[in-house]
Amino acid sequence: MESKAVINTTSPTEKGVLQTAELYNYVMETSVYPREHQCLKELRAITSTHPRAVMGTSPDVGQFMALLLKTINAKKTIEIGVLTGYSLLLTALTIPDDGEITAIDVNRSWYEIGLPTIDKAGVKHKINFIESEALPVLDQLLKDPENKGSFDFAFVDADKKNYANYHGRVLELLKPGGIAVYDNTFWAGTVAMDEGLVPESKLPSRKALIEFNKYIAGDARVEISQIPLGDGITVCRRN
Ligand SMILES: C[S@@+](CC[C@H](N)C(=O)[O-])C[C@H]1O[C@@H](n2cnc3c(N)ncnc32)[C@H](O)[C@@H]1O
Ligand SMILES: O=c1cc(-c2ccc(O)cc2)oc2c(O)c(O)ccc12
């Protein structure tokens, strides 16, 4: 059995938005952990000792991403924000053998922590990892007309202040009908809290996410749904 999630419903800093910790643990133990690939479990265990482990994608978000990827038969995907590669491995395990993932992160050394597990899972050949700030890479991709409208799926999980900047570029890369998923759009519940109650360290990303959530809600180019999984995800379908 996996270790229990601790959700203190009075704390804005814990992940998970269900009514109780018991319900969250029930969902994880009933529906998520039993179906999680062994290599994803291994990667989570490895990442748990990383100083930035808190940033790792939640397995319940991963499971939902896999459902979306399968539903749209995604083959060509892009990921912004890799850390040790949980969402990357999840994507690589889900898309077909000739699928391709462009994965961007400013820090290659964190990706390399997960690479042996990705290799063991037999899916490394699907990944093109680019160590860089994401914005210039997206701009470079968009210079090639063949890339425009060619991606099936995007996962955005990097610096929150750039989500709106990523969105315009990601939409140009996605096919009509393509899906983009933005992680952390609840930002530990702080997007709906009085500013005075929010820990100072969370304020800059909170401001960016509040603006992003408003912006995307008014964007007629996409259908959206903000979903209470993990730290909140926003799923967009390019019209
Ligand atoms: C939340 S973590 C990603 C978690 C990952 N999706 C997972 O499955 O565990 C955010 C990552 O974004 C990267 N990052 C932050 N700012 C970035 C930027 N401007 N361009 C590219 N990567 C960035 C960080 O190095 C970090 O690894
Ligand atoms: O605590 C965090 C911090 C980040 C984060 C902050 C600033 C950046 O430039 C990139 C990432 O991201 C997180 C995240 O994605 C998550 O799921 C939980 C916590 C954090």
Automatic annotation (TrEMBL):
The keyword S-adenosyl-L-methionine applies. Signal peptide: none annotated. The keyword Nucleotide-binding does not apply. Belongs to the class I-like SAM-binding methyltransferase superfamily. Cation-dependent O-methyltransferase family. Gene3D superfamilies: Vaccinia Virus protein VP39. GO terms for biological process: lignin biosynthetic process; methylation. SUPFAM superfamilies: S-adenosyl-L-methionine-dependent methyltransferases. It is an enzyme of class 2 (transferase). This is Cation-dependent phenylpropanoid and flavonoid 8-O-methyltransferase 1. Keywords: Lignin biosynthesis, Methyltransferase, S-adenosyl-L-methionine, Transferase. One of its GO terms (molecular function) is caffeoyl-CoA O-methyltransferase activity. Its EC number is 2.1.1.104. It holds the Pfam family Methyltransf_3.
